[in-house]
Design brief:
This protein is mainly alpha-helical. The protein is about 55% helix and about 5% strand.
């Protein structure tokens, strides 16, 4: 099995791609078939009750321990997005795209882009 399959996690539930039937990729994020199904249920529920809050979990209702338990999942999603961004920047550098263009695309200076991604190219 390719190593990348172990690295890919659902950005919502944080399950590994090897633990679900299907993983759908977006720009730096992924969603598993199980979360897509849950989203469908939420959207269907919104048709029935228009006051549904789409945030999951609703952190105002969680205990401090539950929020602390959730933090590593958020950090893991951030790390996955950061890794994906480094890969995209590396690909652009492989095409000899300038640091100025990359930085401009990311809303930062060329120097900031170079400092953030230089070791990846």
């Amino acid at each position: 099995m390719p190593d990348w399959k172990e690295k890919i996690h659902c950005s919502f539930c944080h399950k590994k791609s090897t633990d679900v039937d299907k993983m759908i990729a977006g720009p730096g994020v992924h969603i598993c078939n199980e979360c897509v199904g849950l989203c469908g249920e939420i959207l269907e529920g919104e048709k029935l009750a228009s006051s549904t809050d789409p945030r999951l979990p609703v952190w105002e209702t969680l205990t401090e321990e539950q929020i602390l338990e959730h933090l590593p999942k958020i950090a893991a999603v951030q790390a996955q997005v950061d890794d994906n961004l480094r890969d995209w920047v590396g690909h652009l550098r492989g095409r000899d795209v300038s640091w100025e263009r990359i930085g401009g695309s990311l809303g930062m200076t060329r120097q900031s882009a170079w400092e953030r991604f230089k070791s990846e190219t």
